[in-house]
Design a protein that fits this description.
Layout (H helix, E strand, L loop, with lengths): L10 E8 L20 H18 L7 E6 L7 H12 L7 E6 L6 H9 L4 E7 L3 H6 L9 H9 L5 E8 L6 H13 L4 E6 L7 H7 L7 H19 L2 E4 L2 E3 L7 H8 L2 E5 L4 E4 L2 E5 L3 H9 L5 E6 L2 H13 L5 E2 L5 H4 L4 H9 L5 H5 L2 E2 L3 H5 L1 H12 L1
Parallel strand pairs: 1-2, 1-9, 2-3, 3-4, 4-5, 5-6
Antiparallel strand pairs: 6-8, 7-8, 10-11, 11-12, 13-14
Helix pairs in contact: 1-2, 1-10, 6-8, 11-16
Length: 387
């Protein structure tokens, strides 16, 4: 099937940003407020932006709702209940509803609330299994016994459970992390996301790095630690279906993220939320105050706006599909589609062990672990050939 950008121009996923947290972590660059008591006005603004989206766009093929943050579960239970009900109103039946959270704010009462409101998936920011790495990351909470935490959640929540971890930095211990990951797989954890530590602008860690208080090659070391960890996770039996994401089986992959990686349009609500609809990519104002003020004035709360050309849209979809274990159809870069002879080019990638030769014979470009290790470089090369 030749690449057709209009095929992907149906909104399959909706992301909602809830930028409230109990603390500011040293690695986090997301604009958040530590005042959840100010959330009532923000939720009202979200509902108004959602109504505009419904009037403007067709959401009849929407499949997933992802409520991220921040930490949405720091909201007062009554307000969170109102938020969940209001967001689902007028939407079609959804296959997946995810809420992000963290273990120190996830009470038994909160789990029961989320379950009763039809939430099907929790994404929990665990971040680390050691207190020293947790301190380095700026988390004031102690590491949680992940096995006991799984049992705690399972007794009160019927949906799927995902955990996020960060690899790298002072205190990171690969042995302890892999031991936890092995046990979690045995205990039936559904999903695992593992990210290398990065130094984002406007963060405490970045400022410390600029003051030379941290090793100059911190990110490079974290990248090497991450490559080692993800290889070993796969050997433990975790299904690596995306560069940084693992599932217990194909049935527990994150449907929301898959639809985005596959290239379908996605809508976003809230301060700092991203969306791409019909090749127009927008980012909302990151400031909660500015976002609310814009909504109250019946203005679009847009901070950045970019229209992709057909070629840019192709590159973006190629890159995101290259990140998942299914790859992309060879026809998308065939001579009929692009006017370029890719036989020799892709043959060199096969020879280097960067793409799967058997899958290529079947008509798909699927990257190997070695190819994923240098995906940015390889996709840059592909772009230069197609350009």
């Amino acid at each position: 099937m030749a690449f057709d950008p209009t095929f992907f121009q149906t909104i399959r996923t909706l992301y909602v940003q809830v930028p409230f947290c109990p603390e500011r972590c040293d690695y986090c660059s997301i604009p958040v407020s530590l005042r959840p008591d100010l959330a009532n006005g923000y939720v009202e603004a979200l509902f108004r932006e959602k109504e505009r989206l419904l009037h403007r766009e067709d959401l009849s093929r929407l499949e997933t709702l992802y409520i991220g943050g921040g930490t949405p579960t720091v909201l007062e239970p009554g307000l969170l209940s109102e938020l969940l009900d209001g967001l689902k109103k007028e939407l079609p039946p959804l296959a997946e509803i995810t809420v992000e959270t963290r273990p120190d704010v996830l009470t038994a009462e909160m789990l029961s609330l989320l379950d009763s409101k039809g939430v099907t998936r929790l994404s929990v920011g665990m971040e680390s299994v050691t207190s020293s790495q947790m301190g380095f990351l700026g988390r004031t909470m102690d590491p949680v016994d992940s096995v006991r935490f799984v049992e705690f959640v399972r007794n009160r929540f019927s949906g799927r459970l995902s955990m996020d971890f960060i690899v790298g930095g002072a205190g990171y211990d690969e042995k302890q992390f892999l031991e936890a990951a092995r046990t979690l797989l045995t205990e039936g954890l559904d999903h695992l996301s593992v990210y290398p530590l990065t130094l984002e602008d406007q963060t405490s860690l970045k400022a410390r790095h600029l003051r030379k208080e941290l090793p100059c090659d911190l990110e490079e070391m974290a990248g090497r630690d991450w490559q080692s960890a993800v290889r070993k996770l796969a050997s433990l039996g975790w299904h690596r279906y995306e560069v940084a994401n693992f599932s217990r089986s194909s049935r527990t992959e994150c449907r929301h993220n898959l639809r985005v990686w596959q290239g379908f349009d996605y809508a976003g609500l809230g301060a700092g939320a991203h969306q791409r609809i019909r090749s127009v990519r927008t980012v909302n104002l990151p400031s909660i105050r500015s976002y609310e003020l814009s909504i109250r004035r019946d203005m679009h709360p847009v901070h950045l706006n970019e229209t992709l050309t057909d070629q840019e849209a192709l590159l973006e979809v190629l890159y995101t599909n290259a990140r998942i274990s299914y790859g992309f159809p060879l026809d998308w870069v065939s001579s009929a589609q692009t006017g370029k002879d890719m036989t020799r080019f892709l043959g060199e990638w096969v020879a280097c062990g960067w793409i799967d030769s058997l899958r290529l014979e079947e008509g798909r470009v699927v990257f190997t672990t070695a190819g994923w290790d240098q995906l940015d470089t390889l996709m840059g090369q592909l772009w230069s050939v197609l350009d």
